[in-house]
Amino acid sequence: MITLSLLGIIVIQVSWIRNAAILKKEQMEQRFLSVGESIRDQMVRRQAPPIRYKMGGTKLTTGDNRILLDKFEFSNIPVNISDRFTTDEVRSMIDSLLHKQKLDTKFEFGITGRSPFSNEHIIKMQSSKFGPTFEAAFNDTTDYYVQQTPLVNSAEDINDQTEVLYIVVPNNSTALLHWLSWVIAGCVLFTFIIVTAFALTIRTLLNQKKLSEIKSDFINNMTHELKTPLATISLAIDAIGNQKVIENPEKILQFSGIIKEENKRMNKQVESILQSALLEKNEIGLNLQVIDAHAIIQHSVDNLQLQLASKDGRVELRLDAINPIIKADDVHFSNVIFNLLDNAIKYSKQRLEVVISTYNTRKSLVITVSDNGIGMSRDTVSRIFEKFYRAHTGNVHNVKGFGLGLSYVKAIVDAHKGKIKVDSALGKGSKFTMEFPQE
Questions:
Q1: Is 158 helix (H, G, I), strand (E, B) or coil?
Q2: Within 13 Å and on the Cβ side, how many CA atoms surround 324?
Q3: Element (H, E) at 270
Q4: How many whole angstroms separate alpha carbon 429 and alpha carbon 201?
Q5: Per-residue confidence of the chain (439 residues) as pLDDT tens digits?
Q6: Rounded to whole angstroms, how far apart are CA atoms 53 and 70?
Q7: For residue 247, what is the DSSP state?
Q8: In the chain, is it the N or the C terminus that has fewer CB atoms within a 10 Å radius of its CB?
Q9: CA distance from start to end of the chain
Q10: Rounded Cα distance, 35 and 169, in Å
């Protein structure tokens, strides 16, 4: 509905601008017509200069001398209107009236009438480029506008002797756009704002939907992850309270060990959530010191031997870096290696093979962790470092976790001013490449 409403608003605005343009064009033509009428009125009202002509003679007698005095009469001889003005006067008059009507544009003009020596119509007055401009306007009416004004007081006075004033102006759409520029600019601006707001609203809704799904998924996973050790602890405590177990110290030690391990598991899960909160606030405290990356990698692999054995897996170390020394936080760096290996074990089938390799570039240490696991789709690869995101593995989520491991890895690598990227394909495994700067 919002999309249809937005499209409707855009269509209405386009229609309104088109109608406004037509109206403005008609107004401009009306102003040109008004200019022609004003010029006609000024030219017609202007009278011809009085001309003296001889009517006859009268003889006066004074004594014996005779003096012949000629008698002159002064009258207005009808002359053509074009004869009363110069070309510059007409040009100045037209220019002044166009400016008054806010129609500043180039123009050419001419006055036609009947020749006194023949019955042909001729051009009695014209501007310098009137001839070719008038011809072009006659051939192409879309590029020029021609104003034709008979120089008479009223339409009843028009006859074969009537002179006609032609004003030719370019039919320039730029002038029309100038009139409508602020309207068009305003419509475009506000339409852009509406479209942008609409797009942001849709984006926000999609993000909220995505966040809601992630939140629900996270709560379900967290409930399951915390409920399992709590249930185990509860069973162990009930078992210890059994009379037969109380009398067996070995059983008590066994169940106490279970309680301790499950308690550690819960603490680890809570710690991962707290670390996630710190990552979100950018409050990771790094204790930077000089460490040997090869030693930490070897130690992490040794600690995961039991998990590797459960998947009949092995880790091949190709530690070829000549200089494995970097400045890093040994705890967080160990967690990065541990999380990558833990993910490789979780998302794999039997006979897991992991290869960890290192090498040096000119200014950095590069560490790669590759496996032959189930791999990831292109969409999963693009979102793998998002917080709480977990790749589906067929069922809803048949691998335990909160989806915080790789987001933590990315944050730690970034905090060390390093880089990380992932290459993966479904069914072919994954490869993580990390680059840490070396001073």
A1: coil
A2: 15
A3: helix 249-280
A4: 38
A5: 777 877 888 888 788 777 877 777 777 778 788 888 888 888 888 765 544 444 444 444 444 444 444 444 444 444 577 778 888 888 888 888 888 877 777 888 888 888 767 777 788 888 888 888 888 887 776 677 788 888 887 777 777 778 888 888 887 665 566 666 777 777 788 888 888 888 888 888 888 887 777 677 667 666 766 776 787 788 888 888 877 778 788 888 888 888 887 787 677 667 666 666 666 666 566 788 899 999 999 988 888 887 788 778 888 999 999 999 999 888 888 888 888 888 888 888 778 889 999 999 988 999 999 988 888 888 778 878 776 666 654 443 455 555 567 888 888 888 888 999 999 888 888 899 999 998 7
A6: 11
A7: T
A8: N
A9: 59
A10: 12
Tokens 């995961």: give the residue: 304
Tokens describing residue 37: 């009428």
